[in-house]
Amino acid sequence: MSRWDDFEAKVGSTIVDALAGAAPVDTGQLAESHSWRDQGEHRLEAISTDDRGPIALFVIGGTQPHPIDPVNAKALHWIGPEGDVFAMHVDHPGTSANPYNQDAWESVRDEVVTEFKQIVGVGSALALVNPWRNRSLGDGSAAPSDTVDALDGG
After folding, report:
1. Could you tell me how far CA 7 lies from the centroid of its own chain?
2. Where are the domains of the chain?
3. How far apart are the first and last CA of the chain?
């Protein structure tokens, strides 16, 4: 097993737990859908495998106002404050972005960086990329602090 494999085994579940803890909770399905996988070539990916679709992307990025029409049913159905609601069409107002993935990263950043330095060690660099924005995690920009260069041990 390589040092990278050891690092993934150590921090993969840490990152997933942070994502689950930071995800907004309605049914809990989004929080429970997070997992990590080895993408090869020293890439660890934390993902949401929610069977309802790319819910994490919609939550993180928000949505514009949009129509909702039934596709595989005759009517839409949900449970509102007063019970069952049925409709043939809904104009959804959209949702605000909730970058819970960034909050999750910030909550475990120091721990992951420390593990990286201890396990992978000097002579390596750790770059954390947000696939939704193609920018570094953290403050949403490609800040130098989002890359850990362990060449000098710092």
Report:
1. 19
2. 3-62+97-152, 66-94
3. 25
Residue 102: C-alpha distances to residues 48, 84, 111, 131, 137 (Å) = 14, 35, 15, 12, 6
Cα(136)–Cα(131) distance, rounded to whole angstroms?
A: 9
Query: Cα–Cα distance between 92 and 114 in angstroms, integer?
Result: 44
Cβ count within 10 A of residue 96? 7
Check if the beta carbon of residue 16 is closer than 8 Å to that of residue 35.
yes
Which amino acid type is present at position 64? Q
pTM of the model: 0.72
**pLDDT 10s digits, 6-40:** 999 999 999 999 999 999 988 889 999 999 988 77
Ramachandran angles phi, psi of 111, nearest 5°: -65, -45
Q: How far apart are CA 141 and CA 137, in angstroms?
A: 7
Cβ atoms of 12 and 116 within 8 Å: the answer is no
What is the radius of gyration, based on Cα positions, of the chain?
A: 19
Nearest 5 degrees, angle CA 95-CA 101-CA 104? Answer: 130
